[in-house]
Amino acid sequence: MQRLQAFKYELRPDGQQERQMRRFAGSCRFVYNKGLALQKERYAQGEKKLGYAGLCKLLTEWRNNAESAWLADAPVHPLQQALKDLERAYSNFFAKRADFPRFKKKGQRDSFRYPDPKQIKLDQGNSRIFLPKLGWLRYRNSREVLGALKNVTVSLNAGKWFVSIQTEREVEQPVPQATTAVGIDMGVTRFATLSDGTFYAPLNSFKRHETALRKAQQAMSRKTKFSNNWKKAKARVQRIHSRIGNARRDFLHKTSTAISQNHAMVSIEDLQVRNMSRSAAGTTEQPGRNVRAKSGLNKSILDQGWFEFRRQLDYKLAWQGGWLVAVPPQNTSRSCPCCGHVSADNRQTQARFECVGCGYENNADVVGALNILARGHRVAACGEDVSRARPARATYAASVKQEPTEATHCDSMSQ
């Protein structure tokens, strides 16, 4: 079994190397924006979109052109990778997986990628890596790089440079050590509630730093734009954002690792986070209702990182030999896991569930997790390939057409 894995470290470049990396990131951004502008111009003129090979031919002309001859100072492979990213952005747009490609801005996700492992040298013993036109760079060696090197991405975040080393290695087909299955109900009050009754409290990293972030942003808004004081204030805002993201990722990794190691099958809701966090402001003709309350809810939803949590569960369960099943989320907290009665009156409060049909009582989030687990069992029983988190819309029919199994009987739910 081939395993692709990335190892990320903080770089420790000298002044010259840092200036070079900023130039390389700027060159890649220039090539991406120039290619996007060209594609939009061709579309306006009714011409066919250029493919990756056609853009690479133009890249050679741009590097030899007197107006953009400075592009020749950057390594050519990262520039080609910028065009490949543009081609992928168009593919995602046409496949309705993303919005139309947008122009990149300086200081936002600056990065460049080396795709050829033959040009890269890794000296783990001395904690350094060799990159074309940059030479040997020191990095903070926090763990060993495993596998054969595939590509390297250099990125800038909050004033610090990082290197992500992607490797490939052969591993044995994993066999899950755990034998249990669990359903997970995602929420705001409780980040994740498991069908066995355990739950994980939310971290709310943005909420913890919201006051400090607001004050830093207010201080930045009072500075003259692009002045030295404005740059210092901007760096302060970026550091707070970085702290928020790092805390959230750490929490998600620890939680997803614990769940993936202790369970062989995990059922989770196929939540459409973008739709759930859509603004309720409405339009001038049809203004929305409870806009402020919905805005606060949207902020709490986005602070949880549900999509990233699902992504981490997906690959970590695959590494452990387990699998992730995504099921429809409709009425999971309104359906009685004992008698199957569905009613909005079943959920008395945010936390209390009491079936109006049979009187079954439990925590509302636990009830949701139990229903999610039961749906996951029904999907798995259909014989479909549900590994690697197949989209739940491909399993809707299997999930809604079958009757609840005996696993949802009152006796088993009360355990």
Automatic annotation (TrEMBL):
The record places domain Probable transposase IS891/IS1136/IS1341 at 164-279
Domain Transposase putative helix-turn-helix: from-to ranges: 1-48
Query: What GO molecular function annotations does the UniProt record carry, in alphabetical order?
Result: DNA binding; metal ion binding
Pfam families to which the protein is assigned, alphabetical: Cas12f1-like_TNB, HTH_OrfB_IS605, OrfB_IS605
**Is Transferase given among the entry's keywords?**
no
Q: Which GO terms describe its biological process?
A: DNA recombination; transposition
Report the residue ranges that make up the Cas12f1-like TNB domain in this protein.
Answer: 306-372
Record-linked InterPro entries: Cas12f1-like_TNB, RNA-guided_DNA_endo/Transpos, Transposase, Transposase_put_HTH
Q: Keywords in alphabetical order, please.
A: DNA recombination, DNA-binding, Metal-binding, Transposition, Zinc
Q: Does the keyword Metal-binding apply?
A: yes
Stored NCBIfam families: guided_TnpB
- Report the family membership: In the N-terminal section; belongs to the transposase 2 family.
Q: What is this protein called?
A: Transposase, IS605 OrfB family, central region
Q: Which organism is it from?
A: Gulbenkiania indica
